[in-house]
């Protein structure tokens, strides 16, 4: 009930705030269906709001040098003016737009603030206004569906064992890495994981080590063995098992759910808002490009056969967002053939060091244009193989630099 009262109060504060502001720029805003006028600013398609107006939402506003802080009892934003940096509670993010000073006003990114608070925004082009509607809050008990099975988490776990590298990364991004007391040997990022006990690999973790930890929750993704998780259930340890996201929207959804599981809704929404905004900015910058380099991502090659990312993978999706064309879009899944690779003859091949070196040295691949033209590029494959925020925040930059260097320079400013 208290949470519902807070949500209602916040909605009323928004309505009150925007009912009392006269627009200086002519931009409109509709909050929960109530049409208002508000003094907004626009920079390259991004809408910003004067910081002082946020005080009417129940936020305390303060400024210390270049740092502008808005805070209430549940969430604190710290924007560094003149930069894209922001802190939301315990996490630090880099957005796609800078906060800045204009005259006597400090302008902050409206979409990011609203989405972090739990609002859904869209642009009403007909009436030239921003539409803001409160989204549904994910609260305990948190239910997560995986095929025919439903996992229900009733309260915030204090201790977690992560059996997936992407889960480990997301939990650190949400500011709760200290809750992880066990990890797989493949959970190697960020560096703080080195202090966490290794409990085996993803398919066959040590049941003895995990039971010794006796965590409140085990979080597993794909590749696990059913009988292993069954042993944890017998020991009375709660399990959350979710198939790895297959596309970027599923990745957003999983981050939001995982944020709710660890009681970090604000942080999760901030993380997803930053990711969505970056994707949107990239798409805007690349709108209308006609030259899309044909690319191929090496997952496996040589004597082990050809493996890549087919059309139904998040890797193919990120290649497209970055302004490239995945030559393996003619298949689904991960299996490919050398015949298809030679027929499609990609301009650029990228992948992990071992796979790239194997391909460059292999006799069968010397006919490929990318090999002949020295367009086989080594990347950190962990960034591209894991459905985690690094795929957007780092992987997208790597691909744009690879495909459209001139636009990469624009995005970095």
Kindly list the characteristics that best describe this protein.
413 residues, alpha/beta, Copper Amine Oxidase, Chain A, domain 1, Rossmann fold, 3 domains, five-stranded antiparallel β-sheet, five-stranded parallel β-sheet, 26 strands, 25% strand, globular, disordered N terminus
The first-to-last residue Cα distance is 45 Å
Look at the structure and give the CATH class of the largest domain: Alpha Beta
Total helical segments: 14
CATH topology of the largest domain, by name, is Copper Amine Oxidase, Chain A, domain 1
Can you describe this structure?
- This protein has about 425 residues and is of the alpha/beta class.
- The protein folds into 3 domains: about 1-135, Copper amine oxidase-like, N-terminal domain (Copper Amine Oxidase, Chain A, domain 1); about 140-260, Nitrogenase molybdenum iron protein domain (Rossmann fold, 3-Layer(aba) Sandwich), CATH 3.40.50; about 290-410, 3-Layer(aba) Sandwich (Rossmann fold), CATH 3.40.50.1980.
- About 35% of the residues lie in helices and about 25% in strands.
- It has 14 helices and 26 strands.
- The chain has helices at about 1-20, 110-115, 165-175, 205-215, 225-235, 250-260, 265-285, 315-320, 340-345, 355-360, 370, 380-385, 390-405, 405-410; strands spanning about 30, 35, 40-45, 45-50, 60-65, 65-70, 75-80, 85-90, 90-95, 100, 105-110, 120-125, 130-135, 140-145, 150-155, 160, 180-185, 195-200, 215-220, 240, 295-300, 305, 325, 335, 350, 375-380.
- A 5-stranded antiparallel sheet has the order 5-6-7-8-9, covered by helices on one side. It has a 5-stranded parallel sheet with strand order 18-17-16-19-20, sandwiched between helices.
- Helix 2 (about 110-115) runs antiparallel to helix 7 (about 265-285), helix 6 runs antiparallel to helix 7 (about 265-285) and helix 13 packs across helix 14.
- The longest helix is centred in the last third of the chain and has 22 residues, at about 265-285.
- Mean pLDDT is about 90; it is low at about 1-25.
């Amino acid at each position: 009930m208290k949470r519902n009262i807070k949500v209602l109060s916040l909605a009323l504060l928004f309505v009150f705030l925007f009912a009392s502001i006269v627009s200086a720029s002519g931009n409109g805003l509709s909050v929960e269906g109530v049409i208002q006028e508000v003094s907004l600013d626009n920079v390259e398609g991004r809408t910003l709001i004067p910081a002082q107006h946020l005080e009417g939402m129940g936020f305390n506003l303060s400024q210390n040098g270049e740092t502008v802080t808005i805070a209430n009892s549940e969430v604190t934003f710290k924007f560094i003016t003149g930069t894209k940096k922001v802190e939301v509670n315990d996490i630090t993010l880099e957005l796609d737009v800078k906060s800045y000073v204009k005259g006597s006003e400090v302008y902050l990114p409206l979409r990011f603030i609203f989405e972090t608070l739990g609002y859904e925004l869209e642009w009403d082009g007909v009436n030239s206004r921003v539409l803001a509607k409160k989204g549904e809050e994910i609260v305990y008990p948190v239910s997560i569906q995986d095929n025919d099975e439903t996992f229900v988490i009733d309260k915030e776990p204090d201790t977690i064992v992560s059996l997936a590298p992407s889960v480990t990364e997301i939990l650190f991004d949400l500011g709760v890495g200290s809750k992880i007391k066990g990890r797989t040997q493949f959970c190697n990022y960020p560096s703080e994981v080195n202090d966490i006990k290794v409990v085996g690999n993803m398919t066959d973790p040590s049941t003895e080590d995990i039971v010794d930890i006796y965590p409140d929750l085990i979080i597993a993704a794909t590749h696990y063995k059913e009988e292993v998780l069954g042993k944890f259930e017998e020991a009375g340890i709660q399990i959350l098992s979710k198939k790895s996201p297959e596309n970027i929207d599923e990745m957003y959804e999983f981050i939001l759910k995982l944020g709710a599981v660890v009681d970090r809704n604000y942080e999760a929404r901030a993380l997803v808002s930053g990711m969505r905004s970056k994707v949107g900015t990239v798409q805007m910058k690349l709108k209308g490009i006609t030259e899309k380099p044909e690319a191929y991502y090496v997952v496996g090659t040589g004597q082990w056969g050809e493996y890549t990312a087919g059309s139904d993978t998040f890797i193919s999706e990120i290649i497209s967002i970055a302004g490239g064309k995945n030559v393996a879009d003619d298949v689904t899944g991960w299996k490919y053939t050398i015949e298809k690779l030679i027929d499609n003859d990609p301009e650029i091949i990228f992948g992990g060091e071992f796979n790239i070196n194997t391909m460059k040295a292999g006799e069968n691949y010397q006919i490929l244009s990318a090999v002949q033209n020295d367009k086989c590029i080594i990347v950190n494959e962990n960034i591209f193989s894991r459905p985690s925020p690094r795929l957007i925040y780092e992987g997208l930059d790597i691909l744009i630099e690879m495909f459209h260097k001139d636009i990469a320079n624009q995005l970095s400013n």
